[in-house]
Amino acid sequence: MAITFTNHVDELLKSFIDDMQPSNVLVLADDNTARQVLPRLPSLATATAIVIPAGDCHKTIDTTCQVWQQMEAAGATRNSIMVCLGGGVVTDLGGFAASTFKRGIPFINVPTTLLAAVDAAAGGKTGINYSGLKNEIGLFSHARQVVVSTIFFDTLPQQEVLSGYAEMIKHALLTSREDFFELTELEPATVDWCEMLPLVETSVNIKNRIVAADPHEHGLRRTLNLGHTAGHAIESLALQRGTPVTHGHAVACGLVAEAVLSHMVFKFPTDLLNRLAAFVRDHYGPVRFTCNDYPALLQFMHHDKKSRSGEINCTLLRLCGDAVIDNVVSDDDMSTALDIYRDLMGI
Ligand SMILES: NC(=O)c1ccc[n+]([C@@H]2O[C@H](COP(=O)([O-])OP(=O)(O)OC[C@H]3O[C@@H](n4cnc5c(N)ncnc54)[C@H](O)[C@@H]3O)[C@@H](O)[C@H]2O)c1
Ligand SMILES: [Zn+2]
Asked: Do 98 and 182 share a domain, yes or no?
């Protein structure tokens, strides 16, 4: 897999496609990227467009079947290539559909959300939701090329920008105090993203270094779960209540809760914890809950995929750049961390 960082996406795509000499080119987009992004790429004007409905609720086997049918109808062969043009839903489902069609055709990921750029498009995880479970069916399969650009973020809704930014903060926390300070000094909502390609490149490279060292998630890759035990529970609670929040919003809150735990267990410095909490409170706002919601939140955490035998399992930090995986956290400690999260977030 190769990753290229460029804001000249069309030229690059054209040269990749010319080099690969595919029998035909398919482009997978969702409703939004078909309308807002595809017209910006003349090199794909003659490609067969396959358009799926936008949203994680459509990352399903039914949508995948429709994609396979359209690939077949377009006469796709193993010499075809699929360009996945969209957020994480398109790159996850597209990578899965391409990797399973005729035992696998090559695909190129062109992430169009910040979250897909820094998290979903590279790393080799493809898949779909199934039977009410996220990413239940899928395979590790790397894109032939990943083209990361920031030019598409100008049409991205604010909350989607923030969603990706939470994963960037996570990568920074896993790297260094300097990286963390740099990100928490910026205003993600008003920044000119076209100029932010180097910042995104840094973030992608952090994840890539971790993934390259542990591609199948035996150890080091689990550091990337930072913020996600509490974050997934908060995301699930919000969904269950019928007031969903973006994945990144929940992760931002999860990072705060797990930074509190990191402070309790490993004395993660108070100044860093307070800085993180203030940034999340001011830019994202809290996901609100009370102590009456703790049983539901703890239940989600006990059933998290990361849990091995039903215990709550978290990645925690000693310092920025010094993560400890596989910490078993008691219900009492997690409840205390949630109390402190609510104090820090002013709820
Ligand atoms: N494979 C992995 O390692 C990995 C990692 C993290 C997340 N994911 C998956 O990624 C998905 C979430 O990704 P996401 O946040 O990108 O969601 P998404 O793909 O649903 O995109 C979010 C929204 O933004 C719209 N959009 C995309 N690009 C746009 C643009 N340039 N302008 C305007 N609108 C645009 C989409 O149509 C959608 O409505 C989840 O399914 C998650 O499971 C996968
Ligand atoms: Zn995440």
From this structure: no
Strand-by-strand arrangement of the 145-148 sheet: 2-5, 145-148, 107-111, 81-86, 25-30, 48-52
CATH number at residue 12: 3.40.50.1970
For residues 299 and 285, membership in a common domain is answered with: yes
The residues lining ligand 1, judged by C-beta closer than 6 Å to any ligand atom, are 30, 32-33, 36-37, 54-56, 59, 86-90, 92, 112-113, 115-116, 119-120, 123, 125, 134-135, 152, 155-156, 160, 163, 247
pLDDT confidence of residue 128: 96
Expressed as residue numbers, the domain containing 62 is 2-155
Among 126, 155, 184, where does a domain finish? 155
Residue 113 and residue 167 share a domain: no
Give residue-wise pLDDT tens across range 217-243. 889 999 999 999 999 999 999 999 999
Which CATH number characterizes residue 221's domain?
1.20.1090.10
Distance CA 228, CA 75 (A): 41
Token pair listed for 247: 């994945």
**Judgement on whether residues 144 and 199 belong to the same structural domain of the protein:** no
Question: From residue 174, how far is each of 206, 318, 319, 323 by CA, in Å?
Answer: 8, 10, 9, 6
Which one of 60, 89, 156 would you pick to mutate in the ligand 1 pocket, going by the greatest count of ligand atoms within 8 A of its CB?
89
Among 155, 171, 198, identify where a domain stops: 155
Would you say the C-alpha torsion 159, 163, 168, 174 has a positive or negative sign? Answer: positive
pTM score over 0.90: yes
Q: Give the rounded distance of the alpha carbon of 5 from its chain centre.
A: 18
Number of structural domains found in the chain:
2
Contact in structure between 329 and 312 (CB atoms under 8 Å):
yes
Judged by its nearest atom, the ligand closest to the C-alpha of residue 134 is: 1
pLDDT more than 90, % of the chain: 94
Using CA atoms, how far apart are residues 214 and 133, in angstroms rounded to an integer? 24
Q: What are the tens digits of pLDDT across the range 115-157?
A: 999 999 999 999 999 988 888 999 999 999 999 999 999 999 9
CA 256–ligand 2 middle distance (angstroms):
14
Residues 143 and 171 grouped into a single domain: no
